[in-house]
Amino acid sequence: MLRKRLWNTVDITLIDKNDTFTYIPALHEAILDEDVLKDFQFSLSKRYPEFKQARISSINKDKTVHTSDWEIISFDFAVIATWSRTNYFGKEDFEKNTLSLRWAQDVAPLNQKIRTAKDIVVVGWGFTWIEIASSIATKISSQQTITLIHSKDRLVDQYDPSVSEKAKKRMTHHWVRLILWERAEDIQENYLITSKWTRIESTCTILSSWIKINDEEYDGELSFDVEYESSEENAIYYAWDVAIHKLMTTAHNAMIEWRHVGNLIADKIEGKNTQYPELESRTTLALALGTRDAIITNGKRSISVPFFWWFAKNVVKRRVLFEFKRKVMLRV
Q1: Distance between CA 299 and CA 305 in Å, rounded?
Q2: How far is Cα 279 from Cα 142, in angstroms, rounded to an integer?
Q3: For the segment 90-144, what is each residue's pLDDT rounded down to a tens digit?
Q4: What whole-number distance in Å separates Cα of residue 279 and Cα of residue 22?
Q5: Domain ranges of the chain
Q6: Whole-angstrom Cα distance, residue 313 to residue 292?
Q7: What whole-number distance in Å separates Cα of residue 248 and Cα of residue 302?
Q8: Nearest alpha-carbon partner for 179 in 141, 134, 123, 132
Q9: Under a CB-based contact definition with an 8 Å cutoff, are residues 19 and 44 in contact?
């Protein structure tokens, strides 16, 4: 975004402790098929001359970034984009006895657990847990069971009821057992108890909900220190997981947010005061289910694409990766 708006009038540094970029929205495709990870990963250092592999130790009010190897980098504007993590709300049994799928390193232990599990339970709210449940259901054996728990009375309840019905139909088509209007209260190694005292056997419980910002204002979970005086000068911007802002999207969620942040910074540099709509007011783009079929919706009307979803999915994934790899801007 900054290169497009400002060309070569600014110096840009991209810092991450890892060299490998992973297209996170495609992670559920790697369930029981870890080899596909390479299809949506690439090396940042090979693509971005601006990239520096380093771990940040602090961001300071004198507008400097300090790395763990004692390098000091000055800035006029800094963007913190550390994404988010699973929020366990202080429930130690949840954190101890569940698995998640938010990062590439989660894939291997999750797959190992799924392969040996007789009863699999997915607990959560949102699009990701539906994709995870559907992906697992299409790949496990007939001797394994999968259950999906949702605390509301219907799936994707923020949408029109017709969309919920289609989602429910696709889940039951894949033999996913649905438990609605109940939430997990107690999760142990081999079972969980719901809010209605239902006991559900589970040798693999996946928690795919309740995200939490990696911000020190939220229990000190940022991996480095930020001196907030620099925020008062509009020197620091944040690009968290857009789900924090209740933005309902799939493949383009992070892209929409960093374009929003990029425009704010470019306006500041150019002395403009453009008004942009808040993230909460952005239009819903699509809801994707699983790896082999999908429902695409604008929130009220929807279409089912059970046979051609693999084509649509690959078009979206390749389009997004094309943007990142070639550093171009396509219309969202």
Answers
A1: 16
A2: 43
A3: 899 999 999 999 889 999 999 999 999 999 999 987 777 888 898 899 899 999 9
A4: 24
A5: 2-85+211-283, 91-208
A6: 9
A7: 15
A8: 123
A9: yes
Provide the β-strand partners of residue 180: 150
* Contact predicate 186/198, CB 8 Å: no
> Rounded to the nearest 10 degrees, how much is the dihedral formed by the CA atoms of 50, 52, 56, 62?
-40
Length of the chain counted residue by residue: 332
What SS3 state is found at 278? Answer: coil
Distance of alpha carbon 140 from alpha carbon 147, whole angstroms: 13
pLDDT band at 25 (very low <50, low <70, confident <90, very high): confident
The hierarchical CATH code for the domain 91-208 is 3.50.50.60
Q: Indicate the class that CATH gives domain 2-85+211-283.
A: alpha beta
Are residues 76 and 235 in contact, defined by beta-carbon separation less than 8 angstroms? yes
Q: Please report, to the nearest 10 degrees, the dihedral formed by the alpha carbons of residues 168, 171, 176, 177 taken in order.
A: 0
Domains 2-85+211-283 and 91-208 share a fold: yes
Rounded distance between C-alpha atoms, residue 286 and residue 294, angstroms? 9
